[in-house]
Design a protein that fits this description.
single chain, 220 residues, mainly alpha, 74% helix, 0% strand, elongated
Length: 220
């Protein structure tokens, strides 16, 4: 589940080409250029994508436009652009299609519209059921809906498919905390701290887990 808009930071481009040069670039270079601009200056990215789309009617231009709107914190509008674009991407372009669906889902999530986000991420997972990143994305959506059981289930599947990382361990620790699985939650967050001892968020979650655990023991 990607991009800065998904909080995964892959739009790390460093060079800006003028609009006048865009038509002379190969399509993949043009797309990279548009994403780079969107990351560095979202409004310029929007302008770039609109200009590119007007002149060439390119699907990649529309894709970049949706990304640029989300980078510009117009999350719902960007998510709608991407969700409307996804049906026009053929299933044989699996990575492209699932990326757009995932980006749309994350846009809706950032807009605090988890129901819409879930629709998009489910479409992506239907296409690629063993994609751990997509499962983590859906787990985040379930967490926003406070559907902790399904959030934990998707994180279990994701970590069975892909090496455990601190972020996913912390997400599962949170789900297990909410499910009152305190011992399992503490094991997850302890493992996250072992893997990434510099992340203060892990310690915050561990403190909440231990406090809940003490309260539960006192009540019993």
């Amino acid at each position: 589940m990607n991009t800065k808009i998904l909080k995964y930071g892959i739009f790390a481009f460093i060079f800006y080409a003028p609009f006048a040069n865009a038509q002379n670039l190969p399509e993949n270079k043009n797309f990279s250029e548009c994403l780079k601009i969107a990351s560095e200056n979202p409004q310029k990215g929007i302008d770039y994508a609109i200009d590119w789309r007007a002149r060439f009617g390119n699907i990649d231009a529309q894709h970049c436009l949706g990304v640029a709107y989300i980078e510009n914190e117009d999350y719902e509008n960007g998510a709608k652009i991407l969700s409307n674009l996804a049906p026009f991407i053929s299933k044989d372009r699996l990575v492209k299609k699932t990326t757009i669906l995932s980006q749309s889902a994350n846009g809706y999530l950032l807009a605090h519209l988890p129901d819409e986000a879930l629709i998009q991420i489910n479409k992506a997972i239907e296409l690629d059921e063993k994609n751990a990143d997509l499962l983590v994305d859906r787990a985040r959506i379930y967490a926003m809906q406070e559907n902790w059981k399904d959030s934990e289930g998707d994180l279990n599947k994701a970590m069975a498919l892909k090496q455990e990382i601190p972020f996913t361990l912390r997400l599962r620790a949170e789900a297990r905390l909410q499910l009152k699985k305190y011992n399992e939650a503490e094991r997850d967050i302890s493992h996250a701290i072992l893997l990434d001892p510099k992340d203060g968020e892990n310690y915050f979650v561990r403190g909440r887990i231990r406090e809940a655990k003490r309260g539960n023991n006192a009540a019993n």
